[in-house]
Specification:
The structure holds 2 protein chains of 2 kinds.
Chain A lengths: L9 E8 L4 H12 L3 E8 L18 H14 L3 E5 L1 H17 L6 H20 L2 E5 L4 E6 L2 E6 L16 H4 L2 E2 L7 H10 L21 H8 L7 E4 L5 E5 L22 E6 L4 E5 L6 E11 L11 E4 L7 E10 L2 E10 L7 E6 L2 E8 L17
Parallel strand pairs in A: 1-2, 1-4, 2-3, 4-7, 8-11
Antiparallel strand pairs in A: 5-6, 6-17, 8-9, 10-11, 12-15, 12-17, 13-14, 13-16, 14-15, 16-17
Helix pairs in contact in A: 1-2, 1-6, 3-4
Chain B lengths: L5 E2 L10 H7 L1 H4 L10 H20 L7 E4 L2 H19 L4 E5 L4 H14 L2 E5 L9 H7 L4 E5 L13 H10 L3 E5 L18 E4 L11 E5 L25 H39 L4 E3 L10 E6 L4 H10 L2 E2 L15 H5 L4 H4 L2 E5 L6 H22 L3
Helix pairs in contact in B: 1-8, 3-8, 4-5, 8-12, 9-12
Classes of the chains: A alpha/beta, B alpha/beta.
């Protein structure tokens, strides 16, 4: 991915990615207050038509959201443009979401959108408009230090979004701003009220932005022939214990809802997309002490040394656990190890490495080919 | 933002001419009565309204009672289509409607609604690569139950005139009514409905330096309309609602000024759009093409398609450079579908998202055009570089 280089860049110009929500609206207002030459921009992404009366009202790119963003821009007296990314988004993000599920993985489309759309396509649109920066409403902080740019969690650690920004490089970080990163969510709401923004009381958006009704299983059934096919539930020895309803309906570590009558409780260990099988096992088999990650990138350009203890998040809402970036495997892969077994390692999710509140980088959890025994410690943890 | 600002979207709307504004002003604060009232306030308002109606009528060689004031150009189109088709059904005189594929959505959507929800038959005529209908195809589409042909006088996006004389004669020969959406064309054309074979004609004064919020529909005497807007029987039962006297007065003055200044305006527009078109096509011989008819077109409309570019992105960059343009019609920002009009004239996917319409006006200068050409060259070059990545 190459970033656009303008020969007439305006030092003071910032393009704000506006969604019509509170965070990006306040981000825009803060930048205006700080004296930047601010331009609002909204991406029109592909989404299903709304489904049913209970369709989420704060979905991406609805006419309402667009009107809200436009109202905020008008109030801030900044230009506002909508850029069309529907086809690009459908091709690279929505199709990716379907493909990953077909391969038994659980993707995080927001990561891919940041990687392939927001901080490439949109950042380039900003740079092409002679802007020096693209600003978003993410809760994260960037610091410029003599050794380069560093990425930190936002002040509101409960809202940490450094996780979804782990793929940014030094080149990106030189051109991004996260104005709400210095505030907590309640403070951002207060700021919205202070700036008299019409969006101060809007609710959070939660679901994937392209779903018509917030139901991703229904979406997969509708858009994929291959996903959501029933198949066997197997134990570690390949014995058939029952039938599953489609792999994407289950999460790693899940116990309830398997419909199995076993003497001991069993848990979902992994998904085998080749056999369309759900592999289950006892609680002891659940944790694992290592994983491999692909598509790895490091904020500083290099991983932390293998003996440096780091904190690792294996999904967006996961509690960080101690670990090590133990080995660089090449081909953009690394092996991450955990002194204590970790439950819920899920192929396709982002694994992000922190040192305290600093995000060091991360990648995507690879398919875990074999269940990794956890009842005897691995070499690294000794 | 840029220091210099240039308005090149007169096809979307124009400023109100100060002479028009001055003529309208008394009708808000002085002569404010309801023209339907019988007292002196009402009578003076009524007199102003009817003078405006007579003036508009006389400018297009129509009788005053053939002029209906509506709320906007779209409403005029709606009234023509619904009014004629509903009456045709009520009178048992027809059930079929013909429109062209590149009508403004005020006509096209109304026709589609008549088809989908009111069980009328609809023929949508294709256009040629210049955006003009083929008269032989029109003749072949006319059926015994055809009640109305609605084909625009000039296209709002690509500027092509339609052969309305031929269309009207065909309609006459088959005993079919002919409506023309003249909303763009009225900025640069005079109408003589006494001699032209036109039965209904829509105008919108804000396209020619009059106010927004008012439209005109000419309805030839004797044509039965069933009004979609019912109420107090204003406008001879064809359009209920309190008459907007100020805007009717403004309409008459604006149309009067078109009539007086038409040749000088058209010549001014022509010089500007010609320079723009020649300049742009010379700058991008491979990647830019003119859309619409090369000569038989609105003199104030210069329209183009750019290969592999998004018209939406072009507009954004032009706006940042201070230049107000349009990618086609003044459609809602942010829903850049491939332009149906560009598809209808046979452009392929490489071109249909890259529409750009620049419409000049009385205040536009040659310097504005040169500045715009300069900026456009830089912007297109830049967008080509960034688009190449995706």
């Amino acid at each position: 991915m190459t970033l656009f280089h303008s020969d007439s860049l305006q030092e003071n110009r910032v393009v704000v990615a506006m969604s019509g929500g509170v965070d990006s609206s306040v981000a825009a207002a803060l930048l205006v207050e700080q004296g930047y030459d601010v331009v609002g921009m909204m991406m029109r992404l592909w989404s299903e038509p709304s489904i049913g009366a209970h369709a989420p009202t704060n979905r991406c790119c609805t006419p309402d959201q667009m009107a809200d963003a436009r109202r905020v821009a008008d109030q801030l007296k900044i230009p506002f443009y909508v850029v069309d990314v529907q086809e690009h988004f459908r091709r690279t993000i929505v199709q990716f979401f379907i493909d990953e599920h077909e391969h038994g993985r659980t993707p995080n489309p927001c990561l891919e959108c940041n990687r392939q759309i927001r901080f490439t396509y949109l950042l380039n649109q900003a740079l092409a408009l002679d802007a020096n920066y693209l600003a978003t409403g993410h809760y994260a902080r960037v610091e410029q230090t003599p050794s380069g740019y560093r990425l930190f969690q936002g002040k509101d650690t409960a809202k940490d979004q450094a996780y979804v920004l782990h793929m940014l490089s030094q080149e990106h970080l030189a051109h991004v701003k996260f104005p709400v990163g210095d505030y907590t969510k309640p403070e951002v709401r207060q700021l919205a009220a202070k700036f008299n923004l019409p969006v101060a009381s809007k609710s959070e958006s939660q679901d994937l932005c392209f779903l018509g009704d917030g139901d991703y299983r229904r979406f997969l059934r509708e858009y994929s022939q291959r996903v959501e096919q029933p198949g066997p539930i197997l134990d570690g020895n390949g014995r058939v214990l029952g039938q599953h309803e489609g792999l994407s309906s289950y999460t790693i570590g899940q116990r309830k809802g398997l419909g199995l009558a076993t003497p001991e409780p069993v848990f979902v260990l992994r998904k085998d997309s080749r056999q369309n099988a759900l592999i289950v096992g006892p609680r002891e088999a659940l944790g694992q002490q290592q994983l491999t990650a692909r598509l790895v990138s490091w904020i500083a350009g290099a991983p932390p040394p293998p003996d440096q203890p780091v904190q690792v998040k294996i999904r967006y809402k996961a509690v960080p656990v101690s670990g090590y970036v133990a080995e660089v495997l090449g081909n953009g892969r690394v092996r991450i190890t955990f002194p204590e077994p970790v439950i819920g390692v899920t192929a396709g999710q982002g694994v992000v490495v922190f040192s305290g509140d600093e995000c060091l980088g991360g990648g995507i959890i690879d398919d875990q080919p074999e269940p990794i025994p956890t009842n005897h410690p691995t070499k690294e943890s000794l | 933002m840029s220091e210099r600002v240039i308005y090149l979207d007169h096809g979307a709307s124009t400023p109100v001419d100060p002479r028009v504004l001055a003529a309208m002003l008394p009708y808000w604060t002085e002569t404010y009565g309801n023209p339907s009232s019988s007292h002196r306030y009402g009578r003076s308002a009524f007199m102003a309204l009817e003078e405006a109606r007579a003036a508009v009528g006389s400018l297009i060689h129509a009788q005053p009672e053939e002029i209906v004031f509506t709320g906007c150009g779209s409403e005029s189109d709606n009234l023509a289509l619904r009014g004629v088709m509903w009456a045709a059904r009520a009178n048992g005189t027809g059930n079929h409607l013909i429109v062209s594929a590149i009508e403004h959505s005020a006509v096209l959507q109304t026709a589609v609604q008549l088809r989908d929800h009111f069980q009328f038959d609809l023929t949508i005529l294709p256009v040629d690569e210049n955006g003009q209908i083929r008269p032989d195809e029109l003749a072949a589409a006319i059926r015994p139950d055809t009640a109305l042909i609605s084909i625009m006088a000039a296209n709002n996006e690509i500027g092509s005139f339609q052969p309305i004389q031929t269309i009207g004669e065909l309609a006459r020969a088959h005993g079919v009514l002919f409506h023309t959406d003249a909303i763009q064309a009225s900025a640069v054309r005079r109408w003589d409905v006494a001699s032209q074979p036109i039965d209904l004609l829509s105008m919108a004064p804000h396209k020619f330096y009059g106010p927004k919020g008012v439209g005109v529909l000419y309805v030839r005497q004797g044509i039965d309309l069933i009004s979609p807007l019912t109420g107090g029987g204003q406008e001879d039962g064809r359009r209920a609602g309190t008459s907007n006297v100020a805007f009717a007065v403004g309409t008459a003055v604006a149309l009067q000024l078109v009539d007086q200044e038409l040749e000088s305006r058209a010549a001014h527009y022509q010089a500007l759009t010609q320079r723009l078109t020649t300049g742009l096509l010379a700058a991008f011989p491979e990647d830019c093409r003119q859309t619409g008819h090369p000569t038989d077109r609105l003199p104030h409309n210069a329209s183009f398609a750019f290969r592999h570019l998004s018209g939406n992105d072009l507009l954004m960059h032009l706006d940042m450079a201070g230049i107000a343009a349009s990618s086609g019609s003044a459609c809602k920002t942010g829903n850049p579908k491939p332009a149906a009009t560009l598809q209808a004239i046979g452009l392929d996917d490489a071109w249909t998202k890259g529409g750009l319409r620049l419409t000049v006006g009385m205040q536009t200068t040659l310097e504005d055009i040169d500045y715009t050409l300069d900026k456009l060259q830089a912007i297109v070059g830049r967008l080509q570089r960034i688009t190449a990545v995706y």
